[in-house]
Amino acid sequence: MDRASELPLIELHDVRVMLGRRVVLENITWELRPGQHWLISGPNGSGKTTLLRVIRGDQPIAYGIGSRAYRLRGNEPDALASAKAKIGYLSPELHERLLRMELTLDVRELILGGVRGTLYLSEAPTVEEKARVQLLAERLGIARLLDDPMNELSFGQLRRALIARALAGVPRVVVLDEFAHGIDRKSRDVIAQTLAEAVREGTALVVATHRREELPAAITHELRLENGRVVFTGLLDAPVFAKAARNGKAVGSITGGVIVKLENVDVFQEARQALRGINWEIRAGEHWFVSGPNGAGKSTLAKLLYGRLRSAHGGRIERDGSYENVSVANIRRSVGLISDEEQLRYDWSIAVEDVILSGFFASVGLMSHPSAEQYETSRRLMNDFGVEHLAKRPFLELSFGQRRLVLVIRALVRIPRLLILDEALNGFDGDVRARILRRVEELARSGTAVVMIGHHEGDIPDWIENELRLEEGRVAAIVRR
After folding, report:
1. 387 near 405, Cβ under 8 Å?
2. Packing angle between helix 400-412 and helix 372-384, nearest 10 degrees?
3. Under a CB-based contact definition with an 8 Å cutoff, are residues 312 and 264 in contact?
4. pLDDT truncated to tens, each residue of the chain (481 aa)?
5. How are strands ordered across the β-sheet holding 10-19?
6. Cβ neighbours of residue 26 under 8 Å, at least 6 residues apart?
7. How far is CA 77 from each of CA 3, 280, 333, rounded to the nearest angstrom?
8. Distance (Å) of CA 68 to CA 12, 64, 116, 296
9. Please, are residues 51 and 225 in contact by the beta-carbon 8 Å criterion?
10. What's the number of CA atoms in the CB half-sphere (13 Å) around residue 429?
């Protein structure tokens, strides 16, 4: 046997990572050997994303403590820069950063950049590079989108494009953090097949996910973290197909007047028609699950309900019995929204407690002085979700997952007439998902109408009694459960 095949591709020994003065990873010893594929697991805040960044070479390790080594091209050690060129990468932070940059790239250019590890190409792609992009796009079902601007894609479509980008350079290792976040079931199957092809091409997988049912079939080993330390390494146990807690209790709300009614509503984003002829209404006390494949218009519908988008001429929107135009500020006093896009918009680095308190006023930043009752509610929820220790930390210094959880809590502090959860449970472990659902049920029992958008039917509580199915921007079905 070739000795190079016996050596670890990546090796960490007694690694420590500091963020500021805080130790976030300690005594990390791990190796990736040829033929192995790893799950990095652990609860929210355990250090998974930081460890993936260490593995990929993006995160510095403490100087003089521990070591990090790569042998991705053979027997001889690789320098960090050359090693990174052979490691594909996808994370929620990367997805968020690319959206914030508002790049003028089409999907083909975005994926081609992954071949060379750049955003913009300094020279024309080769025939082989073009063929690689076309192959990955066909495998992932996005070939028809290659000439579309990346900023016009749905969340799930962009996630598939970023998976193609991570695989474009035929990496020796690909590191995937919550890679199936926001992906519909059919697309998850397509991604699983694509990753299986990558494994057959010789790529090793290192993934983190809170949903074991999303694990690629190739995964062989697991490293489990708690509080920044390794608590288990070994062969992967059989996947656990866990569902969020569902207690089967009826909320028992009485259906009341119309909160929002859409009549023949079309919505355009740039030059693309995202919704077509939508007729639908939400009444007080009703609770809805909105389903459909990536690109069906679900998130566009959420933004329309929240007042961020308007109907095209010819459509009508009734809010609380009136067809008069309502200011966005007034809409947001009665409607709450949790979504990935809202996280992109909230970029004030104020104290976490103030971010949460701003939810009472539907403002970006704290514009009014909270009452004693509002302080009490926010602190109770921070305690319930285990983030009270973050209260005085600047928001933008938090990890992606911590910021996501803080914004979920922000949306849950008040009792809106309508609460919209657009993929709100993604990226959280089962315990946090259950806590979110308990709070949402409390709000539903208090009279809030709830609209949940997602791709995991196991997340949908039994008290959600209605379903709206979208396909290609149209209402495909309305189901009363």
Report:
1. yes
2. 130
3. no
4. 444 457 899 999 999 999 888 899 999 999 999 999 999 999 888 999 999 999 999 999 998 889 999 999 887 889 998 999 999 999 988 888 888 887 889 999 999 999 888 888 888 889 999 999 999 999 999 999 999 999 888 888 899 999 999 999 999 999 999 888 878 888 889 999 999 999 999 999 999 998 888 899 999 999 999 999 999 999 987 544 444 444 444 565 456 789 999 999 999 987 789 999 999 999 998 999 999 998 899 999 999 999 888 999 899 999 987 887 777 778 888 899 988 877 777 777 789 999 999 888 887 777 778 999 999 999 999 999 999 999 999 888 888 888 889 999 999 999 999 999 998 888 888 888 899 999 999 999 988 999 999 888 788 898 998 999 999 999 999 998 6
5. 22-32, 10-19, 67-70
6. 16, 228, 229
7. 13, 61, 58
8. 5, 11, 23, 44
9. yes
10. 14
In the chain, the number of structural domains is: 2
pTM of the model: 0.78
Q: What is the CATH number of the domain that holds 64?
A: 3.40.50.300
Domain range enclosing 268: 258-480
346 shares its domain with 435: yes
Do 473 and 296 contact (CB within 8 A), yes or no? yes
CA atoms within 13 A on the CB side of 82: 10
- Is-contact 17 61, C-beta < 8 A? yes
Co-location of 116 and 185 in the same domain: yes
pLDDT of residue 251: 62
**Res 3: pLDDT:** 44
Q: Residue 155 in contact with residue 299, Cβ under 8 Å?
A: yes
Distance of CA 481 to the CA centre of its chain: 28
Contact 405, 395 (CB under 8 A): no
User: Quick check: helix, strand or coil at residue 195?
Assistant: helix
- DSSP per residue over 208-276, as a string? E-S-GGGS-TT--EEEEEETTEEEEEEEPPPPP------------PPP-SEEEEEEEEEEEETTEEEEE
Is residue 69 situated within a structural domain? yes
Buried b (16+ CB within 10 A) or exposed e, 311-340: beeebebebeeeeeeeeeeebbebbbbbbb
- Residue 229 in contact with residue 205, Cβ under 8 Å? no
**Domain match, 337 and 199 both:** no
Q: Are strands 258-269 and 229-235 parallel, antiparallel or unpaired?
A: unpaired
β-bridge partners, 15: 28
Q: Looking at this protein, which amino acid is placed at residue 244?
A: A
For residues 346 and 208, membership in a common domain is answered with no
